[in-house]
Structures are given as structure tokens and as C-alpha cells.
């Protein structure tokens, strides 16, 4: 195509991108509304998660099923979305009579629009840059290596936002792409050799090869970060495979159609809903069994060894495939006829070495924070727990490295919880837990509504007025009861109290402290018991030994405290309490019981905010007082 003929489509595509970016917020709002039209609530929430990465309305049980089944990546936009977008757009643009170069320009524009539309998270940024580089390479007529593109994407993103490399999603995204680039092709050839190369078998081999490659490449990182190995992830992804692409495509078309008033979005969603329901059912089948997830510990050395073995296996499989190809050529053409060996020639060998080096450099850039400890500005490697000084109330901030912060209660209203969080470097919360709906615990969380992004609020019992405020702010909610858990990176919160039957009964006249959520926070070998206002004398707990105890109800009298200390044997106790409070907290009896058990005590009225930094080597404590 000549430069003059390309000029007009280029200008039109550029103008479309500029207009779309200028109105991306409105486009996203219309897309969210369209994806919820005419579908059951669960399927509507999944559609928004699949297409826009907006998973806050997905209920906690479904999210847990997807995580345990190894399907959680479907709820976060990534390179898969960009690839499917390009695959969907190319034939549609070709049907409009556009030549190849014009189609590629439009695909480049669509990628530029989709990245901010999908939230511009680390994985979609990487996918957008990779997709853009691939399109530009095609436009220039050069056959660029995708591994070089991956390494270049890492450099660009790190230059734009150095701290992004500490994000677990970033690391998993890079590992998945690298695994697909290195392993998918030989796996595809091996699958085709066994099932045949015609019709639907080729599409099945493509999907299965990419699924297996991504699963193998990310498994060591998942075990390293989350100390958990899904035993069903491969089966779950293969079972879901036939429905994933159609569900994504229908969702994308519905989101696009939602920009046009009167478009038949309901028909598209009616076709999409059964596919989404099937994927959710696969998550249930593969996520609910007790054996679906195994607890496995993997150190940094073992992580490196895992990738060395994986890289060696990939190179061995590729070399074996080339030798088999050579034998087939020799048998076909005769043993005496000279055949060019696929590995012969310095330049070809050098290209392979450089490509592998580029891929390993990309993985090294993604995993560098695991070695260096990340940037000094954020929380230290591991976990930071801050018992915030919010006066006569509770507010505990949990900041696991590479994952969103979690706030357990927010203290009393008007006590500046937002400023406390920003002072700790928190601009958004992955979750806020309201242990019970009393002002000294829930008031600060209510203050955060509309002032700080919160992905989800968890609770046991909330007043209707509080729930209405939360929903009016557009924040998803989920109920927690004994036996539930919340995971955030390597941080795990196990809910020990209250039981379902207590939450289900009438609450009028019930002591709200007895309904308070009690959780055990775990990070590797560290554990902290978060008791809210649930005194041990009315709340039967036996969590085993813990490192830190947050003393219940600001240190009020508790006849069961001594027995709880005997069972938990904490190395430190923290009391969240206001200076000069009228309740006499902490009481002399509680302090005497702690002293008799030899437990050191830190309290916010005397010591200010208590900060506990947890690493592999243990934990250290700092106070602001």
C-alpha cells in the first residue's frame, strides 16, 4: 500500500484513539452496564471480571473456587485478553475490506484504548506494550523476536514505574508469557503428533499447549509466593478451555455494543451466560475438593533451581524435536542426500542464544525484587503489621509485600484514618474488615467511603444503614464466618469466630462484642491473633501458639485471658487503647495477667503506633512513642 493510501486510515485510527481515551471513563461505565444486562448476578459479575478486570462483585465463594482451581487469572485482564481482542478484530476488519496494514493500525488503536479501559494494571500494561510492539514489527515488515519484545516491555515498564516489579501479578504475567514463548510450540507439535492436525484438533492443540506452558512456567512462582499448589489447575484450565475464548469474545462485543444506544446487548449476554456458568461450574468441580490445594514451601534457592530445571527441560525437548524432524527428512529424501541440519550455522545458533538470553533477562527483571528486596520506599520484604494509634478504637493495617493492603477495622469516626493510611504509603485497600458495627471499629471505615478505593468490605454483622452506605459507594461486600479465609498474596486470614449459626440468629439484645470477627493472620511461620472486642471468656478459641496477640476489647477485664495465654503462648501483646479513656482500659487485672504469663506489652496510648515488620528471619517491632 502506498503512503498516500495509508494516510487517511492512519489519521482516522489516530482520531478514534484520541477520542476514546478522552472519554475512557464514560466508555468503561457503559461497558460495565452493558455486561450486566439480562444476565444472572453471578454471570454478570464474571463477565465484568473477564473483560474489564472488575471482579469486586464476584462473591467470595466463587472467587475462592477460581483461586483453588487455578482459574483466578481469568478474573484479571492480561495478555490473553489482548490476544483475543486482536484475533476478534482482524477478521471483522477484513470483512470491511481493509488491507492488512490498515487492519494492523486499527488493532494498534484498539489495544491503546483497551489498556486504560481495562484498568491499566501491571499485566495489561505489559500485554499492551507487547501487543503494540508485535503490530509495529509486522508493519515494518521485520520478523522481530517476541522474546526481545518481552525484554523491551520489561525495561519500558520498569522505567515508567520501578516499583511495579514487586507486584506478584507482574511476575506471574511475565513468567506465563515467557513459558508460552519457550514451551508452547514444542508442546503443540507433540500434541498434534498424537491427535492429528486437521479441523478442531489444531485449535485444541493450540489452547492446550498454551495452557500447559503457562501452568508449568507460573507454578514455581505461585508456590513461592502463596505456599500453595493447586493439584487441579491443569485439568481445570483444559476443561474450561473451549468456553473461555467464546465467553471473552461475546463479552468484548457486548461491551462495544453497549456504547451504542439500543444495541441488542441482551442477546449477546444470553449467549454468554451459559458459557460463564460452565466455567464457574468447572471452578466448583476443581476447587471444592479438600485435596485441590496443597500447602508447599519453596525457598528462593529452590525457586531458582525450579526454573533452571524447567529451562533445561524446554531446551532438551526442542533439541529432541529437531532431531526427530531431521530423521523424518532423511527417511523421506534418502540417507545419501545432504540435509541441512536445523541447528547448523553460527548465525542461527547465535540467534537462538540471543533469544534465550532476552527471555531470561525479561524473567530476571521480573524477579529482581525477590533478590534485592524491592524499593526502600514501600513496606519491607514480607509483611508489615501496624496497630495504628487511633485513640479509643481498633485499626490494624496489614501490608503484605506485592499485594494490596488489608485494613482490619478503622477506629472511631473523625480520627484521621485516611491520613494514617496515606502516611503508611497506602493509596488503596484490597480489603477492609469490619469486625463488628460499633463506632470505635466501624466509624473510620465509614469515613473512608468515597475517599479511598476499597475493593471489598468484609463483615459478620452490619446494620442496614451501614450496608446501604457501602453499596452506595459502589463497594462489593462479603460475609465472613468461622471456617472462612481471606488470602492476599502470602498473607492468610483464617476466621475463627463467630460461627454461622450465631450470625444467622436474631441479633437484638445480643452483645455485639460476642459477634465480633476473630481472625488468625498468618504469613509464612508468623502468626497474629486479631481478637477485636471478643473477650476470651465468651469466645472459645484454640488457635495454637501465636507470635503476637492483639488483646481483646482494648484491655478490658477478661476472665478467660489467662487460659487463652496458656494455649497461645504469645511472644508479644499489643493493646489498642486511647489515652485517658473513661473506661479504665487497659484494666489492672488484664495487665497483671499478661505480666504473670511473662508477655511483653505494647499499647498505643503510651507507645503510639506499633509496627511489626515480618521477614523470613523473624519479626522486629518499632513504636512511634
Label this structure with key terms.
625 residues; 2 domains; 12% strand; eight-stranded mixed beta sheet; globular; disordered N terminus; seven-stranded mixed beta sheet; single chain; Metallo-beta-lactamase, Chain A; alpha/beta
Number of strands: 17
* Category by helix and strand content: alpha/beta
Low-confidence segments, given as residue ranges, are 1-6, 16-23, 339-347, 371-380
* Largest beta-sheet details: 8 strands, mixed
User: Strands across the major sheet, in which order?
Assistant: 8-7-6-5-4-3-16-17
Average residue-wise pLDDT: 79
What is the alpha-carbon Rg in Å? 27 Å
Strand content: 5-15%
Q: What overall geometry do the principal axes of the alpha carbons give?
A: globular
Distance between the termini: 72 Å
- What helical percentage do the residues reach? 40-55%
Number of helices: 21
Total of domains: 2
Would you mind describing this structure in some detail?
The chain is α/β, with parallel strands linked by helices and 625 residues long. It has two domains: 10-372, no CATH class; 383-623, Metallo-beta-lactamase, Chain A (4-Layer Sandwich). It is 54% helix and 12% strand. The chain is built from 21 helices and 17 strands. It has helices at 3-22, 24-35, 41-52, 60-68, 79-95, 100-117, 122-140, 146-160, 168-195, 200-226, 233-257, 265-287, 300-333, 346-372, 417-423, 439-448, 464-472, 500-504, 561-568, 588-596, 604-607; strands at residues 228-230, 293-295, 383-387, 396-400, 405-408, 429-434, 456-459, 476-479, 485-488, 491-497, 518-523, 526-530, 548-550, 572-575, 601-603, 610-615, 618-623. It has an eight-stranded mixed β-sheet, covered by helices on one side. Helix 1 (3-22) packs parallel to helix 6 (100-117). The radius of gyration is 27 Å and the shape is globular. The N and C termini lie far apart (72 Å). Mean pLDDT is 79; it is low at 1-6, 16-23, 339-347 and 371-380.
Amino acid at each position: 500500500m502506498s503512503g498516500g493510501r495509508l494516510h487517511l486510515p492512519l489519521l482516522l485510527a489516530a482520531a478514534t484513539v484520541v477520542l476514546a481515551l478522552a472519554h475512557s471513563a464514560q466508555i468503561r461505565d457503559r461497558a460495565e452496564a452493558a455486561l450486566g444486562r439480562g444476565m444472572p448476578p453471578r454471570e454478570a459479575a464474571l463477565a465484568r471480571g473477564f473483560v474489564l478486570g472488575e471482579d469486586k462483585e464476584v462473591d467470595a465463594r466463587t472467587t475462592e473456587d477460581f483461586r483453588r482451581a487455578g482459574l483466578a487469572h481469568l478474573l484479571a485482564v492480561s495478555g490473553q485478553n489482548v490476544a483475543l481482542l486482536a484475533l476478534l478484530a482482524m477478521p471483522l476488519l477484513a470483512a470491511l475490506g481493509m488491507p492488512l496494514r490498515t487492519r494492523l493500525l486499527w488493532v494498534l488503536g484498539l489495544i491503546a484504548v483497551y489498556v486504560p479501559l481495562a484498568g491499566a494494571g501491571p499485566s495489561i500494561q505489559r500485554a499492551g506494550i507487547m501487543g503494540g510492539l508485535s503490530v509495529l514489527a509486522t508493519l515494518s515488515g521485520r520478523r522481530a523476536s517476541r522474546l526481545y519484545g518481552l525484554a523491551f516491555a520489561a525495561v519500558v515498564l520498569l522505567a515508567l514505574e520501578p516499583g511495579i516489579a514487586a507486584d506478584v501479578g507482574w511476575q506471574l504475567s511475565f513468567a506465563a508469557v515467557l513459558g508460552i514463548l519457550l514451551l508452547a510450540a514444542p508442546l503443540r507439535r507433540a500434541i498434534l503428533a498424537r491427535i492429528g492436525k486437521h479441523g478442531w484438533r489444531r485449535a485444541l492443540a493450540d489452547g492446550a499447549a498454551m495452557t500447559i506452558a503457562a501452568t508449568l512456567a507460573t507454578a514455581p512462582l505461585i508456590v513461592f509466593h502463596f505456599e500453595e499448589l493447586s493439584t487441579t489447575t491443569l485439568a481445570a484450565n483444559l476443561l474450561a478451555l473451549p468456553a473461555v475464548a467464546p465467553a471473552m469474545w461475546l463479552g468484548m462485543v457486548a461491551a462495544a455494543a453497549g456504547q451504542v444506544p439500543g444495541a441488542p446487548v441482551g442477546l449477546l449476554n444470553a449467549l454468554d451466560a451459559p458459557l460463564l456458568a460452565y466455567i464457574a461450574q468447572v471452578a466448583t468441580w476443581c476447587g471444592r475438593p479438600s485435596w485441590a490445594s496443597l500447602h508447599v514451601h519453596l525457598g528462593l534457592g529452590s525457586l531458582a533451581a525450579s526454573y533452571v530445571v524447567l529451562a533445561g527441560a524446554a531446551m532438551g525437548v526442542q533439541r529432541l524435536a529437531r532431531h526427530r524432524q531431521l530423521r523424518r527428512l532423511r527417511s523421506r529424501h534418502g540417507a545419501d542426500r545432504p540435509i541441512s541440519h536445523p541447528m547448523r550455522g553460527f548465525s542461527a545458533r547465535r540467534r537462538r542464544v540471543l533469544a534465550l538470553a532476552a527471555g531470561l533477562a525479561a524473567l530476571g527483571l521480573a524477579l529482581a525484587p525477590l533478590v534485592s528486596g524491592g524499593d526502600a520506599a514501600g513496606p519491607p520484604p514480607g509483611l508489615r503489621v501496624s496497630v495504628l494509634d487511633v485513640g479509643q478504637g481498633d485499626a490494624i493495617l496489614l501490608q503484605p509485600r506485592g499485594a494490596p493492603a488489608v485494613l482490619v477495622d478503622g477506629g472511631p469516626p473523625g480520627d484521621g484514618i485516611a491520613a494514617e493510611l496515606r502516611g503508611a504509603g497506602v493509596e488503596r485497600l484490597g480489603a477492609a474488615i469490619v469486625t463488628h458495627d460499633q463506632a470505635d471499629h466501624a466509624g473510620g471505615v465509614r469515613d473512608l467511603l468515597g475517599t479511598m478505593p476499597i475493593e471489598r468490605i468484609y463483615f459478620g454483622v452490619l446494620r442496614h444503614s451501614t450496608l446501604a452506605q457501602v453499596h452506595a459507594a459502589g463497594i462489593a461486600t462479603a460475609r465472613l464466618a468461622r471456617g472462612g479465609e481471606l488470602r492476599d498474596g502470602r498473607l492468610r486470614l483464617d476466621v475463627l469466630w463467630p460461627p454461622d449459626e450465631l450470625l444467622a440468629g436474631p441479633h437484638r439484645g445480643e452483645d455485639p462484642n460476642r459477634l465480633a470477627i476473630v481472625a488468625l493472620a498468618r504469613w509464612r511461620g508468623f502468626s497474629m491473633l486479631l481478637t477485636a472486642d471478643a473477650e476470651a471468656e465468651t469466645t472459645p478459641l484454640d488457635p495454637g501458639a501465636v507470635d503476637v496477640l492483639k488483646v481483646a476489647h482494648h484491655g478490658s477485664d477478661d476472665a478467660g485471658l489467662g487460659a487463652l495465654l496458656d494455649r497461645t503462648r504469645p511472644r508479644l501483646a499489643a493493646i489498642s487503647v486511647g489515652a485517658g479513656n473513661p473506661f479504665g482500659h487497659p484494666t489492672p487485672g488484664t495487665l497483671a495477667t499478661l505480666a504473670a504469663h511473662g508477655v511483653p506489652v505494647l499499647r498505643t496510648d503510651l507507645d503510639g503506633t506499633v509496627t511489626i515488620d515480618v521477614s523470613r528471619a523473624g519479626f522486629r517491632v518499632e513504636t512511634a512513642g
